[in-house]
Amino acid sequence: MICKDCFGATERKNNFRDDPSIKTTSALLSDYKDSGYDRGHLVPAGDMTMNELAMSESFYMSNMSPQSSSFNRGIWRKLESQIRDWSNIYDTTYVVTGPIINFGFSTIGSNKVAVPQLYYKVIYFKNRQKMVAYILPNEGSKSDLSNFQVTVDEVEQKTMIDFFPSLEDALENRLELSLIILK
To answer: Among 19, 24, 43, 177, which residue is least crowded by beta carbons within 10 Å?
Structure first.
């Protein structure tokens, strides 16, 4: 959840490291070395400026996914920034982010970390009862973000995830089918 009053002044430190709570095999820094991919944040560091702990934990490798540098530093960053702007306008904002990995995916490093072909974001503005969703290819783009907007239902079909299942069914169905334009 992004909270409009939660943004602070904590600065980014780029302290990428293993997540001590992960007990299974996980991606390592070495998997990214010379791979051609950025360690892309799923929860953006820019959303974790409220304190040192939150910022620090955003650099766990469990929050990273291989992203093309032109994607990570381009349209993905633009979408992250847009969502922060919306959260200041629309108040309580929930964001679900993840990769979409299809058959034929490539891998990086000795741990064979999957490189997603696509990434999604599903955004729910609770107080406004609105949802927006995006699916973006893991590549650079100069296109407008609106070109990647889809319904939440489309993301659910591609990911096999039921987003916000605790919402009343009629409301959930209405929101997930809508394609709204936010400015």
So the answer is: 24
Q: What percent of the chain has pLDDT over 70?
A: 94
Q: 100, 8, 111: which is closest to 54 by C-alpha?
A: 8
Instruction: Tell me how far apart the alpha carbons of residues 81 and 102 are, in angstroms, rounded to a whole number.
Output: 27
Q: Which two tokens stand for residue 152?
A: 């939440």
User: What positions carry a catalytic annotation?
Assistant: 41
Q: Which residue has the higher pLDDT, 3 or 99?
A: 99
Dist CA 132 CA 125 (whole Å): 9
Q: Quote the CA–CA distance of 7 and 16 in Å, as a whole number.
A: 21
Rounded distance between C-alpha atoms, residue 76 and residue 85, angstroms: 14
The structural domains of the chain, with segments of one domain joined by +, span: 29-177
Single-letter residue type at 169 = D
What DSSP character marks residue 2? Answer: B
Distance CA 49, CA 65 (A): 20
Rounded average pLDDT over 160-183: 87
Binning pLDDT at 50, 70 and 90, where does residue 90 land?
A: confident
Q: φ, ψ for residue 139 (rounded to 5)?
A: -160, 160
Q: Which helix (H) or strand (E) holds 85?
A: helix 76-90
| Residues 50-79 pLDDT 10s | 899 999 999 999 999 999 999 999 999 999
Are the CB atoms for 70 and 140 separated by under 8 Å?
yes
